[in-house]
Amino acid sequence: MIICANKMEYPLRTQCQRVQKQVMVNGEKERVSLLFMKALVSRGSVDAVSQQMASHPQYLESFLRTQHYILHMDGPLPLPYRHYIAIMAAARHHCNYLVYLHSAQFLRVGGDPLWLQGLEAAPPRLRLLDHINKVLAHQPWLTACSHIQTLLKSGEQCWSLAELVQAVVILAHCHALCSFVFGCDTDSDFVPLSKSPNGTPPTFCPFDAANGNTNVPQSLATPSEHITRRRSLDSSCDVVCLKERIQKSQEEREKREERLMQTQTLQQTDMEEEEEMICFADLSRFITDPDFCYEEFARREEDHFQVFRVQDYSWEDHGFSLVNRLYSDIGHLLDDRFRSVTTLPSLHSPDLKRAIWNYIHCVLRIRYDDYDYGEVNQLLERDLKLYIKAVACFPDATKTPVCPLSWAVLKTSERIHVNLLIMEARLQAELLYALRAITQYMIA
């Protein structure tokens, strides 16, 4: 009798492959669950942006780590300043979602409510950032050494170099995040939550996740799918396991106790609800020169405008070392974000991802001498190019950019991946312009 080994091994091999695949899926779910749980503990909610990014947990982890570092960890700027700078950045693109989010966090960390009446009510030092905020948001190629000199030599209101670098990182981070918010249509579905001192719904306790509470406000769910928090936390690691991990962390408990004390203090403020909602609704109060926006340029104009060439000043050779020296460890965190988004498993080929990245830098007047830009036209369809340019350069102009026809066959995670590429490419472009100007100031 002849025994066919292949036929006997095939079912076992298939089963092993299925088990391996399931383990990988469960591992990704657990990774997302832990990230969401950390967000629930630290902020009291899982914001819509994090839920959108959850389809790429490797990138989400890098993004949250960077965002937490620049907004909450040790640094030269006080916490209220950081969130107010984020408000200024988001307002340039009329991003209601981010302005409301950072306004709530601004109040939670003890920011003066009067500052939310508008830019004129903010301290003079913060108002000095308005010009570089405007330039970086819309025409970053205009960023010059003179802008840096003005901020660093403004008498009693002058900024230190370390403070300025952190401020620039926050501005660039929030400008780029606006592109992601509008690209994923998060802002159009955003409905401000009812008044709450710490930025979370009054009926939602940050510790509910550890108790398995599934009563999460609908506004915290992903706008397109309206999934519940219970579904977001679903994984092979049950809620009891997550609760035990949280309870073991003394540091997290201390943070929660401190947050409760801040909440009780903020609850004593007598700011009227109507005044608060007006602050969130009218973004023009945080904007000067509203007509300043992105400008098109033709190839013939390159002689009149100096093109930024990566061979002369690149992130790898120049920007990374400078920002890491002036703002400890942020270079490593940003570099990890750039690497994560370009190495994510995807249906998109490496050539396509490179074409998207280089095209975004091209419309922001950054060129690579060793890249054949003919590939951009070969790999990117016209409607996709129009979408990428709109989201990267003027995300709020149409509020909801027309999605490319080719996206109909793509999964949601693939569309989100494109928006992540847009966000990170824009972030790096703004940082390159700002850091080059700082370098020029330092060697002048």
Automatic annotation (TrEMBL):
Give the record's GO biological process terms: cellular response to L-leucine; cellular response to leucine starvation; negative regulation of TORC1 signaling; positive regulation of macroautophagy; regulation of response to reactive oxygen species
Short name of one Pfam family:
PA26
Chain coiled-coil ranges: 239-266
Compartment(s) where it occurs, according to its Swiss-Prot or TrEMBL record: Cytoplasm
Q: Which GO terms describe its cellular component?
A: cytoplasm; nucleus
- Would you say which domain of life the source belongs to? Eukaryota
Q: Which residue spans traverse the membrane?
A: none
Reactions catalysed, semicolon-separated, are: a hydroperoxide + L-cysteinyl-[protein] = S-hydroxy-L-cysteinyl-[protein] + an alcohol
The UniProt keywords, alphabetically, are: Coiled coil, Cytoplasm, Oxidoreductase
Q: What are the GO MF terms of this UniProt record?
A: L-leucine binding; oxidoreductase activity, acting on peroxide as acceptor
InterPro entries, alphabetized:
AhpD-like, Sestrin
Q: Is Cytoplasm a UniProt keyword of this protein?
A: yes
Kindly report the protein's main subcellular placement as a broad class. cytoplasm
Similarity field? Belongs to the sestrin family.
Q: What is this protein called?
A: Sestrin 4
